[in-house]
Amino acid sequence: MTYTIQSKETDLINVLNNLNEDHKITIIGINDFGFPQVSQTKFHSIEIKENYSQRFVYLIHKPKHKRKHYKKSLDSKDIIILNDWHDISTESQHKTTYKDDHIIKKSIYTSFDTTFLKEIDLIYNTEKLYSHIAAN
Strand 55-63 to strand 102-107: parallel, antiparallel, or no bridges (unpaired)? Predict the structure, then answer.
């Protein structure tokens, strides 16, 4: 009897392999500083690098209003990939106040909080191609 373990990388690879070149997608994730990041891009291809016990998935894509292709690592990240381009504002997670001549933005969530991603996951459920959000 053989068992296959379906990992999140396998699911991601299957979704990306089914996309055509220049397919418009929106990628929502958390950047290196812990804040939400939204990218509208055109899919080009994927690159998979494997070694003894790890698999690395890279997305080759062309961001909106750019000419050349970029490579983005999609490993071990909280990420949502939506079909087509969607205008998703990250400003809804900030509370903006004006004091004297200064603009003060205070985040509603803490760094690396996945609540924003969970809300987007629920709102865009029908447009979602792939979603991986780790439990906090």
Answer: unpaired
> SS3 helix, strand, coil % of the chain, rounded to 5?
20, 40, 40
CATH number of 8-132: 2.30.30
**35 token code pair:** 């804040």
C-alpha span between 73 and 106 (Å, rounded):
29
Indicate the helix (H) or strand (E) that contains 69: none
pLDDT of the residue at 25: 96
Helix (H) or strand (E) holding 134: none
What are 88-135's pLDDT values in tens digits?
A: 887 777 888 999 999 998 888 888 888 889 999 999 999 999 998 876
66 CB-near residues (< 8 Å, 6+ apart): none
- Identify whether the C-beta of residue 79 lies closer than 8 Å to the C-beta of residue 59: no
CA distance 94 to 60: 31
